[in-house]
Amino acid sequence: MAFNDDSFIREVNEELRSDQMKGVWRRFGRYIVVVAILIVVGTAGKVLYDYWDDNRSSGTGDQFLAAMKLADENKNDEALAALDKLEKEGHGAYPVLARMRAATVQVQKGDAAAAIAAFNEIGKDNAVPAAVRDAAKMRAGWLLIENGTYEQVSAAVEEMAVPGNAFRHSAREALGLAAYKAGNMAQARQWFQSIVNDTDSPRNVANRAHMMLDLITASGKAPAAQG
């Protein structure tokens, strides 16, 4: 869907001047979450691609690609069946990749609860490489913004919201949005401010954090940051 960033920001500023916080979130909240999720998916996808690339010599590679094609064609049940077989019978990296892809297919089917459960299970499996476990936790955390509580999001991703963690920017943004959605503006401000204060934050993430800080300030429900 085409979206004009200048128009979006201009409309948000108009909402701010009208002090219509609820209206802003109702109109733009889902867009903010979706854009951020796409970034998380891209980051997780890079991790998974590298993992797959290191193991692509396996004879199950063609089966995995065929299952992905079914998913891309929205043949979800067929894709899940193929991925389940790969999880049980595949070699090398493919069983793990099949689990991750199957969870994503559950999202496509609209079964967020099943997807969250699957990603959480992968995130807790010590047999899975750490980078893939973190990617799974992040996917669960972002799904929980709309389908869970702040506490659930925190349990999924807060351990990654620390300096040096590759997923810290996405984790902080997820926590900030979850706190904002829960009405905890002080907590939301802390997370968005931590993004702004991190000089390594990607520009698009930092820009969204600035916008959310403006929304929080306009709400009058959290004190402005000092210093």
From TrEMBL:
Presence of keyword Nuclease: no
Keywords: Cell membrane, Chaperone, Membrane, Transmembrane, Transmembrane helix
Alphabetical list of SUPFAM superfamilies matching this protein: TPR-like
Molecular function terms, GO-annotated: protein-containing complex binding
Membrane topology according to the record: Single-pass type II membrane protein
PANTHER family: ANCILLARY SECYEG TRANSLOCON SUBUNIT, UPF0070 PROTEIN YFGM
Subcellular localization: Cell membrane
Pfam families the record matches: TPR_21 (PF09976)
InterPro entries: SecYEG/CpoB_TPR, TPR-like_helical_dom_sf, YfgM
Gene3D superfamilies: Tetratricopeptide repeat domain
Family: Belongs to the YfgM family.
Protein name: Ancillary SecYEG translocon subunit
Main location (coarse class): membrane
One term under GO cellular component: plasma membrane
Record field: transmembrane: 28-49
The Ancillary SecYEG translocon subunit/Cell division coordinator CpoB TPR domain, residue ranges: 23-202
